[in-house]
Prior knowledge:
By secondary structure, this protein is of the alpha/beta class. 31% of the residues lie in helices and 26% in strands. It has helices at residues 46-52, 82-85, 88-93, 129-149, 166-177, 189-197, 211-218, 236-242, 279-282, 286-301, 317-328; strands spanning 6-12, 21-27, 34-44, 65-66, 71-77, 100-103, 112-116, 120-122, 157-160, 181-186, 202-205, 224-229, 243-251, 273-275, 309-314, 335-339. The strands form three sheets. Strands 3, 5, 6, 7, 8, 15 and 16 form a seven-stranded mixed sheet that branches. The protein has a six-stranded parallel sheet with strand order 11-10-9-12-13-14, sandwiched between helices. The protein has a three-stranded antiparallel sheet with strand order 2-1-4, with helices on one face.
Amino acid sequence: MSYPSTVQAITISKTGGPEVIEKREIPFQGAPDHLVVKVQYLGVNFIDTYYRQVEGIYKASGFPFVIGEEASGVVVALPTDEPVLNDPDYKKRGYKEGSRVALNCLGSHAEYVSAPWKTVYMIPEPVSTLTAVSALAQGLTAVSFMEEAYNVQKGDIIFIHTVAGGLGLLMTQLAKSRGATVIGTTSTPEKAALAKANGTDHVILYKSEDTVARVLELTDGEGVHAIFDGVGRDTFESDLRMIRRKGTLVTLGNASGPVLPFPPIKLAQKNVKLLRPTIENYTYTPEEALYYGNALFSLLANGTLKTRIFKEYPFTADGVRQAQIDLTSGKTTGKLVVKVSD
């Protein structure tokens, strides 16, 4: 199999609003220690907007900058680097030309991607490339964070912000499979119904209810064992009021902006554990990446985890612009994807 010397990619030439997103032709060459993947689907995530925004939390390495961190497709070229080919961890993956894979690396919004092999996950039957891309980033987050950031156990009471989003739905399903009680927030009755259909025990409509008061009521004043918060700045103070003594607060996103600096002594009021983890540091070694990749795809294959596609967008500048607008509007449920090829 072969690949072209130029590809179409979704890029930005400067930071700004969605209007700075463009589709352009760029040179392409696979690195000797990388896999080359022909992309079928792209996953749309909040981190894509963080690179684009003027006040973005993450900074582009240069312009034009290819956005995106999540894709799925088919391997068209293997590494040629001898140390990689002889690496025992590489051999465990079983990559072949034609293998169906999902990948989690920066610069993925393109027709072809050159990706470090550690970031490329084999897709087992019966999981499709569409399901894989709808689950990879959020699924790896769910399985690793709910094992290492806070190991969810039977009998735990878990709180999940934005419980009807792509990550919230997967975290709910995983927590319920472990025997936990799940409390979550969302914005509309329609989203609440979806969250309940995916296992959420108690859904709080944060726009019309007092979230803290409701959580304390549901937990007899004790609070929850763990909070998974992808909102950030706007919910952090409430989190400290809802967490129980010796509870764990996992802040994992910045939808409302990053948490503001605060004196650590605030955590001493309840001996709270606070973490701000990333997928990359839970899948840092090849062994860790393989472990969590296998865990995720096993849960998808056996039906424990089920993804929901909110909408499929075209591989155009307008399509990706609209996807980012929709994602940040707070009106979506489940996963937003972009179709690149058959």
